[in-house]
Amino acid sequence: MKVNRSKGYARVDGLLLPSIVIVALITQIPILVTLGLSVVRWIVVRPDLRVSFVGISNYIQLFTTPSFLGIIVNTVVMTLASITVCTLFGLIISLTLNRQFPGVNIARIILIAPFFVMDAVAGIVWKTLMLHPSFGINSVIANLFGVTPVDFLGHYPMFTVVMLVVWQWTPFFVLILLAGLQSIPEEILESARLDGAGWLRTILRIKIPAIANHIEVAVMTGLIFILKVFGLIYVTTAGGPGTASTNLPFIVFRTGFYRWDVGRAAAMAVITVVLTLIFLNLLFTLVRRKSRELEA
Amino acid sequence: MCKRFISVMASTAICIAGFCAGGPLTIATVNNADMVTMQKYSSEFTAKTGIRLNFVVLPENELRQKVTEDVGLSAGRYDIVTIGDYDIPIWAANRWVSSLEPLFKALSPAEARAYDRADLLGPVRSALSYKHEQYALPFYGESSMLFYRKDLFAAAGLKMPPNPTWYQVYDFARRLNQPTRGQYGIALRGLPGWGQNMSVFCSMINTFGGRWFDMNWRPQFKTPDMRTAWEFYKKIITEAGEPGATTAGYTECLALTSAGKAAMWYDATVSAGALQGVDSKVRGRIGYALAPTVKKSNAGWIWAWSLAIESSSRNKEAAFKFLCWATSKEYINLIGNRVGWAQVPPGTRISTYTNPKYKAVADFAPLTLSSIRNSNYNAPCVEPVPYKGVQYVGIPEFQGLGEEVGQQLAAYLAGQESVDAALSACQEAALRVAKEGGYLK
């Protein structure tokens, strides 16, 4: 029986069509609506001003506002710092947990737990019970040593937000990297040992190259989620003081729901999406290149 | 087939009839203690009138967002909305809420007498009106006042005047500030937000002689009075206030004061009930004074959580019945008798403050009443201004502008920005609002 390959593909495409339509409707319509809203002037609380087409003036206004450019820098710094530290800590912790010792399962559960705490809850607990200079453990420790408690959220807002993101997201990296480490065949590690490779050499030359794909997945997924961190910022620093810890998702929220400026909020959202795609592509290219180098 | 068609038609007809006749009233409300109590006792209203109620209870910020979305996008999900006096003139101008005047006129003489509209406190009623028409009824109202620890003042040989100046307050705060013993001179909100640090700081700006805009809507952030207010706010907090002030909002300041960690606290009059509550460590040791002043003698703010009817509501008459019940003397008596007189919604009716049962449990009642009566919603500043509102500027753009200025104030307080840089940023933001909003003349 002859198989018509082209017809076969056509049939497969036909079968895929409903899924493609549903995915397109779900994902593309909001993007198109956001794009459409980004070229209008619409302030919900001023219906007397009417909705009007303003072309790209929302974008021009944003890119000529120094504070908005500062917020883009904040977003980049916050994301890169968090991803770097999460990857480093994730690797160290997963290497530590990838062995048998008494209570290993309990240790794994405890270390992974922060990932399952909701953003708002984690933020409030850290802000009030841990870092607050009057009520928190911060105050208790400072009093113990007779020093003034550090006002983390007021004086080091960016550092504190990155610290909280790292606290919450490192377990995610640990989960993925640990899965990668556990999938390395024991024979390879055994061969490395027989060849006289020490623990550091085994990690650098065998384990890390072997889990390169897992690192890639963790970094990519982490990037997508960490770029849109909102809850932690909302409940801890509210983006401040000033705009010191404001990132793009938070300014979109503030512009949309405090200023009710739908046009500018939509323009910011479009910029956020574009930046995310640029970041992902850059990172993807970089990781691919590194992987090829390691494979070679 | 015919049978099925008839049953489908009948169900549709029943649904349409139900919809037109008006189902339960949907009420969007805030999750504070007084509103939760109202929800709890709303079955009394249903039993009396047969009108069913469906509550949507949300935190304050979320409530404002949801309700603004609802009216701004004409979704018409709610019949009754809980909004503050900041929102009323704006929403009335946008025709998002209905005037209550026609509904008041339709009341029978007996109903009007029972409700006794003249009993509502004048400043609160004025704040809930637009072009001489009332658009909302006050559920509870508040002003601001200074709370101080009588025991600490007595031990230090200090005497709080009934109407202190901010400079006297600063002096007291410096003397009573003992951070090593966990006691701060004063608690003041520093958490950025138009409903947080800006509530307190706006009233300070006014009394220091500052204003947001002049009569031509030119921003006034670069005036000496405004600068003095900013510098004073930072000075009093850094020298005698709570540490980590940029994370201290209303809740944190209340916690500090009720835990006995603050010698003074300037905030909402409604907090007096909490400070005298059973959980408070400072119960019975709190004294009260009017909002501190500098150049303007009446510096206290005015705020009222109120109930209004959405213009799109199909059940306006039923909604008005609920509004009247929830803000009536009858409701206050119900809560007083069932829950306790200290828990009745304050700041709305004159009769509450003449009620001996309330006066017996609320030693703060006379000062709350004077604070509300003393506040000047229509002329909040020393110099004339084109806007109304004490702790806010009564324009729709203030939510965004207030947030921006609040953040600049926090950045200045945290030492991340100089006063000049912060004031310039505020001037720029205010100018943008004045231009884009079409206010600037």
How would you sum up this structure in a few lines?
By secondary structure, chain A is mainly α. Chain A has 14 helices and 2 strands, in the order H-E-E-H-H-H-H-H-H-H-H-H-H-H-H-H.
- The CATH superfamily of chain A is identified as MetI-like
Low-confidence stretches of chain B: 5-21
User: What is the CATH C-level name of the largest domain in chain B?
Assistant: Alpha Beta
CATH topology value of chain A = MetI-like fold
Helical fraction of chain B: 40-55%
Q: How many structural domains are formed by the residues of chain B?
A: 2
Distance between the termini of chain A: 44 Å
CATH architectural arrangement of chain A: Orthogonal Bundle
Helix proportion of chain A: over 70%
Largest sheet descriptor of chain A: 2 strands, antiparallel
Overall residue-averaged pLDDT value of chain A: 89
Which fold name is given in CATH as the topology of the largest domain in chain B? D-Maltodextrin-Binding Protein, domain 2
**Uncertain regions spanning at least 5 consecutive residues of chain A:** none
SS field, number of helical segments of chain B: 20
CATH class of chain A: Mainly Alpha
Q: Briefly note the structural class of the backbone of chain B.
A: alpha+beta
Widest sheet of chain B: strand order? Answer: 2-1-3-10-6
